[in-house]
Write a structure and sequence with these properties.
Among the domains are: 71-191, no CATH class; 257-451, no CATH class. Helices cover 39% and strands 11% of the residues. The protein contains 32 helices and 17 strands. Strands 1, 2, 3, 4, 5, 6, 7, 8 and 9 form a 9-stranded antiparallel β-sheet that branches. It has a two-stranded antiparallel ribbon with strand order 10-11. Helix 17 (476-488) runs parallel beside helix 19 (507-516) and helix 29 packs antiparallel against helix 30 (700-713). It is globular and about 85 Å long.
Length: 756
């Protein structure tokens, strides 16, 4: 399971139905496609016992690994936690763990807040924590927030704790263990079991879930093995096709050759495929699922939408922040660029490092050059001499789970000091600051992370991002990130460069190009989007369709319209992959609305509310649909229904305030807009709307005062500054206006005059 925090803010739902980490599903009998596109004979799961009959060493390594122990039936042998009638108190809720008649139980707060008894069906994970699964009606399996710290006592372990720490979480919170955010079927099962098949019936609100093996076994990575077993057991079959669906042979015959001058190694042959990384990525990335195809997969973006290096997940320079796992950081690294794969460092069956600690690094990096005080600036054998501490800085998730950044970056301490970013030095030297660390080390040469960080923390974002987008030496995931962020952060320049990226060899970049199209002019959207509608990769086609959707069918040729219609159908199918998610039904409703299918849109929004009554965008968007249909009274009812369940949510108050303004009920509207602007989940948009409402009442001075306060809250948001500039010019305060013009890079020519 994960410590993800879904549902804390209004979600802009576009393509991803759910950006969680532990999701992977499949249909065991779905045949995979070979390189020629022909369908292979359907394969079925045979189980790790069948594999181990021939592959004894691999099974020995796997046995007892984190994959082997990813999930298990609750039993004396699998349970690590203390179920000897122990109690744990969290925010006033007393959770008890005990056994009865050989079965495991917990007593804790239920969906309505009352204490109830639940059988503990399964264990989840093993180290450094173990979680426990409880089965609820309708096939739902939920992950308890109270978990067992399985670390040794001397490290603070062997205790019950809550994965969200001291945060108050009651039964109405989206993070409560009974909510969909903690649902095993949807959020976790794919990556903790093998051959999982999970179906959700929207009408019955029930799951049907099964698996081939309860843990992550051989066929989770190699694919269903029946054809391989048949080949192995056939004395007359001498074909080169051994029946394996995935050939994990990228490292076969490969060596790393050391360059004595640099102390670094290079691959004996370039890596020309992504097979191993693609097999690992679905479970070791932050991503959304867009396919139910059997695992493993050949092209990641046909089945998943990986998170890019976006501000809520990563720090501005690309360091890990939220739970993003490995894929997104590894794709940023020079290691990946040079052809390194996961198994260059990790034994793929035991998952252990190929050598202990920093010794894994000196497989390819000369110890006499890098394992020295001249390089690491610490005494030999000290903690600071460990390569991993500086180049893979750790961060703790779920209170006890330490994970390392896999971007293998060279610390850029000057940048960290300037922009107040994390740095590995002060993580250990807690009595010092980053300025000290920067002064004590050599400045690094220019790097793409400088531009990425400056784009998100200062002026000139568009220029920096466009420079990254067109630089072929920059990692593809960074180019893709720049493509997506450039229009959002205020630059729609460089459309010719954007169009060039539509033919990029990397699917991530083409996907980002298609996503960026929705912010560009209609002519560019059509010119580039029509091409991308026929892209071989599903994620690209879906994003291109969504960018073209608002333009209407009249802009498309008959051939392009056929491709568009196919992409629309694909998009609908994608949403139903996770029909248990309210996001999926809101996505469908948004699509129907733009296709002018208003009745279908309303039904889908209402389904979203039924699936998850706590999902705010469903209320906001349904109310907006009623605005379009000129039924504001019904929209008001929907928003007030949401506020009864979710009082104080800024998005609901903001939408209600705008509706009341349209209805001429200004006093009521001011109350709602003020509540939204001052809410804990307020955005600059809410503050701007409230300020404009104050100004519209003739209180420009009060509006200016409020905007100046909002600037402090929202770090000089450009829209707030632009509104403030207009108000200053209107009242004739040109000195203040000129200062703001300079702040947002509007030329000042000295001719400004007081505006009457």
């Amino acid at each position: 399971m994960t410590g993800l925090r879904p549902g804390r803010a209004l979600i802009a739902v576009v393509l991803a139905v759910n950006m969680s980490a532990c999701e992977r599903s499949g249909t065991p009998d779905e045949p995979a496609a070979d390189a020629s596109g022909a369908r292979l004979t359907a394969a079925s799961f045979v189980g790790s016992s069948a594999c181990g009959a021939c592959h004894e060493e691999q099974k020995r390594l796997w046995y007892g690994s984190h994959h082997d122990l990813a999930m298990g039936v609750a039993s004396e042998s699998s349970n690590a936690g203390d179920f000897d009638d122990t109690e744990f108190l969290h925010q006033g809720v007393r959770t008890r763990f005990y056994t009865r008649d050989g079965q495991y139980f917990t007593e804790t707060d239920s969906e309505d807040g009352s204490l109830q008894e639940f059988p503990v069906r399964y264990t989840f994970g093993t180290y450094p924590l173990q979680q426990y699964l409880v089965e609820l009606p309708d096939g739902r399996i939920q992950v308890l927030g109270v978990s067992w710290d399985s670390r040794p006592v001397e490290q603070g372990g062997q205790r019950w704790f809550h994965v969200y720490g001291d945060e108050p979480i009651d039964h109405t919170d989206v993070l409560h263990w009974t909510q969909m955010s903690q649902n095993w079927n949807s959020m976790c099962a794919d990556c903790h079991s093998t051959g999982l098949v999970s179906r959700f019936d929207v009408d019955r609100f029930s799951f049907e879930t099964s698996w081939a093996e309860i843990d992550v076994a051989c066929e989770a990575c190699h694919g269903p093995g029946s054809r391989h077993v048949s080949w192995a057991e056939s004395p007359t079959d001498s074909s080169s096709d051994d029946g394996l669906l995935v050939k994990l042979n990228e490292r076969r015959g490969i060596t790393w050759i050391l360059d004595p001058k640099t102390g670094n190694s290079s691959r004996s042959q370039p890596r020309e495929t992504e097979t191993e990384i693609t097999v690992c990525a679905p479970c070791h990335s932050r991503r959304a699922k867009i396919s139910d195809t059997a695992m493993p997969v050949e092209q990641l973006l046909d089945h998943y939408l990986p998170a890019l290096i976006q501000p809520d997940l990563y720090y501005p320079d690309g360091q890990i922040n939220d739970e993003v796992y490995v894929y997104g950081s590894f794709l940023q690294s020079r290691m990946y660029q040079q052809g390194v794969t996961c198994s260059d460092c990790h034994e793929p069956h035991s998952l252990e490092l190929l050598a202990p600690g920093p010794d894994v690094c000196v497989q390819c990096h000369a110890a006499e050059k890098f394992a020295t005080p001249d390089h690491h600036l610490h005494p030999v054998d000290s903690a600071g001499a460990n390569c991993i501490e500086c180049h893979m800085p750790p961060k703790t998730y779920m209170q006890v789970d330490v994970r390392h950044d896999h971007s293998f970056r060279v610390p850029r301490l000057q940048l960290s000091a300037e922009l107040e970013l994390p740095d590995p030095c002060t993580a250990c030297h807690v009595d010092r600051d980053t300025a000290w660390a920067a002064a004590a080390t050599v400045a690094q040469p220019p790097h793409w992370s400088d531009l990425l960080a400056r784009a998100q923390t200062g002026t000139g974002a568009g220029t920096h991002l466009l420079a990254l987008a067109v630089d072929g030496s920059v990692p593809a995931i960074i180019r893709a990130t720049a493509m997506v962020q450039a229009p959002v952060l205020g630059s729609v320049e460089g459309t010719a460069a954007l169009a060039d990226r539509a033919a990029d060899d990397d699917a991530l970049v083409r996907w980002a190009t298609a996503r960026a199209l929705q912010y560009l002019d209609p002519a560019t959207r059509v010119r580039v989007g029509v091409t991308l509608l026929d892209d071989p990769v599903k994620a690209v086609r879906l994003a291109a369709m969504y960018a073209l959707l608002p333009l209407g069918p009249e802009v498309l040729t008959p051939q392009a319209q056929r491709s568009f219609d196919l992409a629309v159908q694909e998009y609908m199918e994608v949403q139903l992959v996770q029909a248990e998610r309210a996001e999926a039904h809101v996505n469908l409703a948004n699509l129907y609305r733009m296709l002018n299918r208003y009745d279908d849109s309303e039904r889908a929004y209402r389904t979203a509310i039924r699936v998850n009554p706590y999902f705010i965008p469903a209320y906001v968007n349904l109310a907006d649909l009623f605005r379009i249909r000129e039924n504001e009274a019904q929209g008001e009812l929907i928003l007030r229904e949401g506020l009864r369940l979710l009082p104080g949510q800024g998005a609901l108050h903001h939408s209600l305030g705008l509706m009341l303004v349209r209805d001429g009920r200004i006093n009521e509207a001011m109350t709602e807009l003020a509540t939204a602007a001052q809410s804990g989940n307020a955005t600059p948009r809410y503050a701007l709307a409230y300020a404009l409402a104050i100004d519209a009442q003739g209180d420009t001075g009060d509006a200016i005062a409020y905007l100046n306060e909002a600037r402090q809250r929202f770090s000089d948001d450009q829209a707030l500054i632009a509104a403030l500039l207009i108000m200053y010019e209107r009242i004739g305060d040109m000195a203040a206006a000129v200062e703001l013009r300079r702040l947002i890079n509007i030329p000042v020519d000295g001719s400004e005059q007081a505006v009457p």
